[in-house]
Amino acid sequence: MPQPPHALAPVSGSPSPTPSPSQAELLDFVRRTAADTALIASLPLDPEGRTWVRLDGPGGSEAWLIGWPPGTGTGWHDHAESLGAFATARGTLREHSLAVRLPADGWKNLELADDVDRSRALPAGRGRAFGRHHVHEVLNESPDEHAISVHAYYPPLPLIRRFSRTGAILSLEQIERPEDWQ
Length: 182
Known about the structure:
This protein has helices spanning 23-34, 37-42, 178-181; strands at residues 51-56, 62-68, 76-78, 83-90, 92-98, 109-111, 117-123, 127-130, 135-139, 147-154, 160-166, 169-176. The chain is mainly beta and 182 residues long. It has one domain (20-181): Jelly Rolls, CATH 2.60.120.10. The strands form 3 sheets. A 5-stranded antiparallel beta sheet has the order 1-2-10-4-8, with helices on one face. It has a 4-stranded antiparallel beta sheet with strand order 3-11-12-6. Strand 11 (160-166) and strand 12 form a beta hairpin.
């Protein structure tokens, strides 16, 4: 027996919450955005340092369009509890990452095992997604070409831990909070 129309109305007046974006949805967003040639062309490029513009990401995520002068990089870092994805829109980026989960706190120096290093080239049109606590560095190794990429994180970045690396030793150097980069 069909229910009366009033039975289909929402019980409360509050809207249902937007579901959190998944790694796949973040990756889809950064790939589609990286393919937007007008947006990519609109990013001002600086020959000396990285440039960035904040974007509206899906489902409340934090997103950025980033320009990379030749020879620049992020240094080793992680994104704390955030999932993420990035895609190269122009040029080629190289990602070095660690296949290991670092302790959340309580350490200054760690000795890494021999088999944790990963490296991949991400030319224009390629992207990757990653989970929480992903430790990596991203580089534009080109000697003469800018690279441009799109990045998205969910939840919006609560902090970034920055590391230095000498051989197998990874050292925690700095913790940045959103007010440091916005």
